[in-house]
Known about the structure:
With 177 residues, the chain is mostly beta strands. It has helices spanning 31-34, 80-93; strands at 21-25, 35-38, 43-44, 47-50, 57-60, 65-66, 69-74, 119-126, 132-146, 162-168, 172-176.
Amino acid sequence: MSIPGVPHTPANPNGMHPNKFILSFTALPTIEYWALSVNVPGLSGGEVLRSTPFIDLFVPGEKLQINPLSITFIVDEDLRGWMEIYQWLRDLTFPKDFSEYGKLPNRPGVFHATLPQYSDATLLILDSKQNPHIRIKLQNCFPTSLTDILLSSTSAPEEPITADATFRFDLYEIEIL
């Protein structure tokens, strides 16, 4: 019940913190430790034009368009996280010959016996007390891009080298814990 003239106070007055998250992929064990940023993918429902003699109107579309998942991570000294994504992309695209595609079931973290090209991912968003508060489960992820590793003699030695990776997936579900 609201009181006239008094704004509604939310049940949880805390804002979300941009640096309180844990990202984990079944097939990318190293990324959880080195992840610097990740987006919660946006989505749109599309629209269909309905013409009338007077004005064009729009009605809701039938297909959901989901933006890709993008992550930025620190490239560790052994290139482990970068190499996990690199090898996954190579195995998906078999750049030398078709036999490379057969390596997919042997990747670490593969849990789809019949669909080894995919991996699920989980993004945990933590509350102000560092406890898991929101779980976002992304289903059937696969990498679509991995950025360059830029080495520069003009960079400060304490500045970490980072890379970005982009993933597509089927759907995601959000659960308040």
